[in-house]
Amino acid sequence: MKTPAIAATVAACFALSGPAAAHEFKAGDLTIDHPSSRPTPPAARVGAGYVSIRNDGAEPDRLVGGSADVAGRFEIHASTVEDGVARMRRVEGGIVLEPGATIKLASGGSHIMLLDLKEPIVKGQSFDGTLVFERAGTVPVRFSVEGLGVATTSFSHEGH
Ligand SMILES: [Cu+2]
């Protein structure tokens, strides 16, 4: 029941992220490509963040956290489908970036969860934040807000 909606939002994201919208940040051997978020309804308390990170170095690194100006808390979540229902859980210990690997935090998969939103996330705007890595340290980034609405509404948020 939920899967087609997730597939649709993923397709919409790809359709919107053309070369004109791309932006990237460098931190040592890491390339952080196109941090983005989705618009949220006015009373929403949670939003989501997406990004692709490539490690061109010879050593592994690890995404362990971050921050966003619009949110009180920043968590890394993984999505799973159990009994046909999409669920998410917090990833303890972060996400490993092996040498040569690219990790994608995207709708329907692992993603950044922005909790305790201080203000709605508005399409066409952007907000500052950071990504924190074990080796590369704290990297300032900017999230662009695009797409058709936050995907998190299609997930169960038990445990938040
Ligand atoms: Cu989540």
Short description:
The protein is mostly beta strands and 160 residues long.
Give your account of this protein's structure.
- By secondary structure, the chain is mainly beta.
- The protein has a single domain (24-145), classed as PCu(A)C copper chaperone (Immunoglobulin-like, Sandwich), CATH 2.60.40.1890.
- It has one helix spanning 3-16, and strands at residues 24-27, 30-37, 46-55, 61-68, 71-82, 85-90, 95-97, 102-105, 111-117, 126-133, 137-145.
- The two termini are 23 Å apart.
- Residues 5-20 and 151-160 have low confidence and may be disordered.
- The site of copper (II) ion has 5 residues, from strand 9.
CA radius of gyration: 15 Å
First and last CA, distance: 23 Å
Main β-sheet, in a few words? 11 strands, mixed
| Ions, cofactors and other bound molecules | copper (II) ion
What is the CATH T-level topology?
Immunoglobulin-like
Helix fraction, binned, reads under 10%
What shape does the CA trace take?
globular
The second-level CATH architecture is Sandwich
